[in-house]
Amino acid sequence: MTCPPDGGAELLSAEFREVTFDAPDGLKLYARVYGPRQDTGALPMVCLPGLTRNSRDFHELALLLAQNPSTPRTVVTFDYRGRGLSAYDPDWSHYNIRVEAQDVIAGLDFLGIERAVFLGTSRGGFIIHILAATAPQRVAGVIFNDIGPEITAEGLRQIIQYLRNSRNPRTWDEAVERLRSVHGPAFPALTEADWMRFARAIYRRQRGTIRPDYDQNLLKTFEGIDFTKKLPAMWEQFDLFNELALLVIRGENTALLAQSTVDEMARRHPALQVINVPGQGHAPLLETGHLPELIAAFAAGIDLRAA
To answer: For residues 50 and 160, is the Cβ–Cβ distance under 8 A?
Structure first.
């Protein structure tokens, strides 16, 4: 087993429980559990991050949902293999959404979660599509953060190009400035505090150096992709959501999730709810603006349907 570099999350663990569990192949994986230990009657929410991201992306949102005065709920956030505090996989070909979906199911089994509301940012949304096909009984409702069954090749190309060209910042202020230089035009709505949270979710201090918090071998999985061609889509899996409550959060300036894709999602799922987030791109920061209240209200509606 290859383990991630040393260094822990820079947040107080008193705000959540840290959990490690075994993947089906024995790899050690990490998750956080927020909220009351006792049953509040609310379904848990399981948050799945993007391609190179980790559980810290959801920290502020998870606290707000776990402490919601009317419907407090358990919130679980996962670090995929090769990200955050989960172990790195010695076989980089295992960095794929089918293996990661199996890892999520293993985590749910370990935590005793039979059914939940799922929130997926970017790649996390693709994993939810896999869960709809392989473990539909687990999924009570879905929130997609700037993702759908189809993404643009150009948007993915931009992400991979940025990741391949990124360098380690020397200070946290430099990390913020590098992020702002790349993402600033798509995120004019962010405040200085937002940018710093953004940076601390992406990077971690490891062995005295601030580094992106993922296995660089992850990028090998994108070698050979022809970005001039349309990427494979998951419409067949999306149609499995037809009886579930479904919410799409889309950044106004996103390059990944086309408006035409959202329109087709709404055509196939007439009850689809859509939130457009002004001044943000891919993917909106879910703790900003009124998003926490809107997400909490959507999940509360799923609770009523499940009761």
So the answer is: no
pLDDT tens for each residue of 70-111: 999 999 999 999 999 999 999 999 999 999 999 999 999 999
Task: Please give the share of the chain, as a percent, with pLDDT higher than 90.
Answer: 90
* Per-residue model confidence (pLDDT) at position 7: 38
- Residue owning tokens 């940012």: 121
Closest to 166 (Cα-Cα) out of 196, 210, 123: 210
Could you tell me if residue 59 is inside a domain?
Answer: yes
Q: How many structural domains does the chain have?
A: 1
Distance CA 56, CA 9 (A): 8
CATH number for the domain spanning 120: value is: 3.40.50.1820
The Cα diameter of the chain in Å comes to 51
Cα distance between residue 224 and residue 276, in whole Å: 33
Query: pLDDT class for 61, splitting at 50, 70, 90?
Result: very high
Tokens found for residue 247: 């919410």
User: Can you spell out the DSSP letters for 106-146?
Assistant: HHHHHHT--SEEEEEETHHHHHHHHHHHH-GGGEEEEEEES
Asked if residue 261 is part of any domain, the answer here is yes
Among 261, 282, 276, smallest CA distance to 186 is for 282
Q: What is the mean pLDDT of residues 125-150?
A: 98
Whether 286 is covered by a domain: the verdict is yes
Distance CA 42, CA 307 (A): 9
Q: How far is CA 251 from CA 246, 260, 284, in A?
A: 17, 14, 6
Interatomic CA distance for residues 206 and 197, integer angstroms:
18
| pLDDT 10s digits, 29-50 | 999 999 977 778 899 999 999 9
Query: Is there a domain that residue 28 lies in?
Result: yes
Domain of 51? 13-306
pTM value is 0.94
